[in-house]
Specification:
By secondary structure, this protein is an alpha/beta fold. The chain contains five helices and six strands, in the order βαββαβαβαβα. α2 crosses α3 and α3 packs parallel to α4.
């Protein structure tokens, strides 16, 4: 089974790839990155993976059976569309299973837009017709500092 992980050049994508490499399952592992040159040091095959380019993503997912989708770091109002692009590309490429890194949180906080986007993507994943799994991390502020004013 070939597994691909998105955002290979980001913090969470890198950490997931590192953990999967340590498992040493012998199964092929592919990293997807918007800027592939930023992930070549991972020691695995790296393919282009821009969430805004469904055609590119579809081509990059050729031969992938399972896809771990790390949530986009774009502003919340753009994330749902980007995630839908990845889901559509995965379907078109014949991916059989999606795993999505979602979040947990309360809807009555300043982080409601992020939570709403993640919950919509969870539903989109469930409605995709593919096998799926969803992991929910607690909200962490570090990646969203630049958007803090929009959350107030």
């Amino acid at each position: 089974m070939t597994l691909a992980v998105t955002t290979a050049s980001g913090q969470l994508g890198r950490a997931i790839i590192g953990a999967l490499k340590k498992l040493d399952t012998g199964q092929p592992l592919i990293g997807l990155a918007r800027t592939p040159s930023k992930a070549v040091d991972l020691g695995i095959e790296i393919r282009p993976g821009d969430y805004d380019d469904t055609e590119q993503m579809t081509a990059s997912l050729a031969g992938v059976e399972s896809l771990l989708v790390v949530s986009s770091m774009s502003p919340p109002d753009e994330r749902t569309g980007q995630h839908r692009n990845v889901i559509a590309a995965a379907k078109a490429a014949g991916v059989r299973k999606l795993v999505f890194t979602s979040i947990q949180g309360k809807p009555d906080t300043g982080f409601a837009p992020i939570l709403a986007s993640s919950l919509q993507t969870e539903q989109d994943v469930k409605d995709s017709g593919m096998d799926w799994a969803i992991g929910r991390n607690g909200i962490y502020i570090e990646p969203d500092i630049e958007y803090i004013d929009t959350y107030r």
